[in-house]
Amino acid sequence: MAGLFGNRRNARSGGSAGSLLADTTHGSAVTDGWRFSLKGSPRFYDDVLRIIESDSGAAVYFGEALTYERGAAVALWRIRARDFSWLPTLYAWWADQERIEPVRFTFLLYIPPELKYAAMNLRDHSAAEVESYIKQMAPKT
Length: 141
Known about the structure:
Strand content: 15-25%
Strand order of the largest sheet: 2-3-1-4-5
Number of strands: 5
Number of domains: 1
Order of helices and strands: HEHEEHEEH
Largest sheet: 5 strands, antiparallel
Mean pLDDT: 86
Low-confidence stretches: 9-13, 19-26
CATH architecture: 2-Layer Sandwich
CATH topology: Alpha-Beta Plaits
Radius of gyration: 18 Å
CATH class: Alpha Beta
Number of helices: 4
Structural class: alpha+beta
Distance between the termini: 47 Å
């Protein structure tokens, strides 16, 4: 039977709901590392997600493109990382965006279990300082 948009209901291998779920979900390859969160501009959610996940040693295990915190719209990336080679790339991309866009924006670092108040504003620190701070303060799984 032809389904919506012309897709066949049983076109997938096995045709069961289990095989459909296997086709659409996958777990993170990064199962250990330091856990922390970044919050920033919702406008750049997808770009930042791609930068973080371009490193095989880092993964966003939970992300929200738009959430509200104290009345402000923010994006949230909860990250597990055992490698930080993506961090200098993020800083370089950030500098480029601020040259292109007329608006300055920042990223805030949160270390669990304290997720209400930022531990650090990335604008005030270099990528190496941020990496060192995360390695000292963030929980490691």
